Amino acid sequence: MVTSNFIKNIITDDLETGKHNSIITRFPPEPNGYLHIGHAKSICLNFGLADEFEGKVNLRFDDTNPIKEDTEYVNAIKKDIEWLNFEWDELHFASNYFDIMYEKAQLLIKKGLAYVCELTPDEMREYRGTLTDAGKFSPYRERSVEENLDLLERMKQGEFEDGSKVLRAKIDMASSNMNMRDPIIYRISHNIHHNTGDKWCIYPMYDFAHPLEDAIENITHSLCSLEFEDHRPLYDWFVKECEMESTPRQIEFARLNMTNTVMSKRKLKELVDNDVVDGWDDPRMPTIAGFRRRGYTPTSIRNLCREIGVSKADSVIDSQMLDYFVREDLLPKAQLAMTILRPLKVVITNYPEGQVEYVEIENNPKDESAGTRKLPFSREIYIEREDFMEVPVKKYFRLFVGNEVRLKGAYFIKCNEVIHDENGEVAEIHCTYDPETKSGSGFTGRKVKATIHWLSAKEAQKAEFRLFEPLILDDVPENEGKHFLEQINPNSLEVIEGLIEAEATKNASPLDKFQFVRHGFFSVDTKYTTNDKLVFNRVVSLKSSFKI
Fold first, then answer.
1. Strand order in the sheet with 90-93
2. Is 265 a catalytic residue?
3. Catalytic residue, candidates 255, 345, 414, 518
4. How far apart are CA 150 and CA 159, in angstroms?
5. Any catalytic annotation for residue 125?
């Protein structure tokens, strides 16, 4: 569902006035990396509008730079869109239009609107001028049509080295819009392309290719982020002067910016290449693949994009907003289970040795239909180490010598003795239980101030838990001379060997979701989980102060 916004209003007006009978949008990623959460906003917008207005949406790969693009990224992008539960109507590649683009470049030359230039990059920057000073004409600007056509063909045939020549549009070197000062249309690049192989050694620039692609596909509304607003006059110029039959309309909107989050494929690739993370799908990465592996749901991401809406004003949202939506989605779905992340052994000295009884535990407190399960209770159990304090602080109500607590779903226990290891650390504690206090028995004799969770030593199974903090620290500014890698949080990943309730997770598969009592929502990891070992990624903690 797409809520009302200025783009929707434009489309509504275009349909009501008969400018268009139907709409066609497109999502046009460059396959030079994995999609991140910022792309999710564009995906939801383009696919959502097409769905609401019963139009079509194309997935198009803007693959005009063979140096950075790869089939791996093409496949990853397809997977991400499908995971978000969207379907494209047509699949296209910019590279499929290279022949048409070359013909349009020739057309511009014939119209006296393009020329082959041999200025070096430094010279071109000098000739371009500044925001206050007009640029200078290239000495190659007045080449004849015949010479330009010949040079372009020879560029195409591979006669010249990379960087030695470019094809430029001839527009206006005095324009107040720097994008209109004879921009580059084609450059030489002797590299193998993932789709066209070695057929081409010249490639169109994005600003030239993108409007032609939209026009070829009859896109009605070309939705771009705000940084392309200054490029719109050039977009319209190429559509007009290349004499395209269809005239798409470019509309810009504010991109998604989020606290503690990198929104740059270049920087994300740097994280991967420098082994800061273990791949594009590392659960700390803000890629859609990373969110998927961590355990976020398609619904939570789509709900986030719906909530933030569409505007012309840049803003930064709190990353906790996404956490809010994934909690809302998982709360009624995730099965409840007991886990002990930092175990402390408890021996219940007055409980019969060898005896095992079963207490009833609900599978999901938010869904009665999920039923209950039986959890074994025995003489030796494990509790969280933080649930015992040898020297309790003020208002500490959990276990300490002489204090009594309730074990969730079971009995009251009272701590009587502490056993230390050879280093003086607490190794285990000894307690007694009151058999009259079993949960559900109706016992009202006395009350305790704390309830703690536990696992029977007979039930507990070893598992690995991965806890995450933001990968990027926003309070370390990326100042001039400071590399963004200096913003990396050294505590972004904590790996813990703990214990888990074996029965509740015995059939767990990768990406299965659980609510672990007191610890949060977790998902089975897809990379490190094996037949012999379960590895869980914490999606989010149970509570947050963030409110929608």
1. 24-27, 56-61, 90-93
2. yes
3. 255
4. 11
5. no
Please report, as a single letter, which amino acid is at residue 507: N
Closest CA to 115 of 144, 76, 88: 144
Q: Is 267 a catalytic residue?
A: no
Reduced DSSP (H G I as helix, E B as strand, rest coil) percent helix, strand, coil of the chain, to 5: 30, 25, 45
Total Cβ atoms within 10 A of residue 85: 10
Mean pLDDT of all residues in 112-120: 98
Q: With contact defined as beta carbons under 8 Å apart, do 326 and 539 qualify?
A: yes
Q: Note the helical H segments in 217-353.
A: 232-241, 265-273, 288-294, 298-308, 320-330
Is it the case that residue 1 has pLDDT exceeding 50? no
Q: Alpha helices of 121-264 — where are they, by DSSP H?
A: 121-128, 145-156, 206-216, 232-241
183-194, pLDDT tens digit by residue?
A: 999 999 999 999
Candidate list 30, 270, 428, 503, residue with the active-site label: 30
The conformation of residue 538, written as its DSSP 8-state character, comes to: E
Give the pLDDT band of residue 459 (cuts 50, 70, 90). confident
| pLDDT tens, residue by residue, 140-150 | 999 999 999 99
Q: Which residue has the tokens 């989020």?
A: 258
> How sure is the predictor about 548, in pLDDT bands with cuts at 50, 70 and 90?
low
Q: Which of 470, 485, 110 is nearest to 322 (CA)?
A: 470
Pick from 397, 385, 290, 305: which is nearest to 346 by CA? Answer: 385
Residue 300: Cβ within 10 Å count: 22
Residue range 281-300: average pLDDT?
A: 98
- Mean pLDDT for 352-377 is 87
Helix (H, G, I), strand (E, B) or coil at 428: strand
- Give buried/exposed letters for 226-250 (b at 16+ CB in 10 A, else e): eebeebbebbebbbebbebeeebbb
Quick check: 373 pLDDT over 90? no
| Catalytic residue selected from 60, 170, 187, 265 | 265
In whole angstroms, what is the distance from residue 321 CA to residue 286 CA? 14
Residue 472 to residue 487: CA distance in whole angstroms: 5
Kindly state the tokens that stand for 160: 């010249």
Buried b (16+ CB within 10 A) or exposed e, 524-541: bbbebbeeeebbbbbbbe
Nearest to 115 by CA among 76, 60, 86, 155: 155
Global confidence as pTM: 0.92
Q: Which residues on neighbouring strands pair with residue 167, listed in sequence order?
A: 116, 186
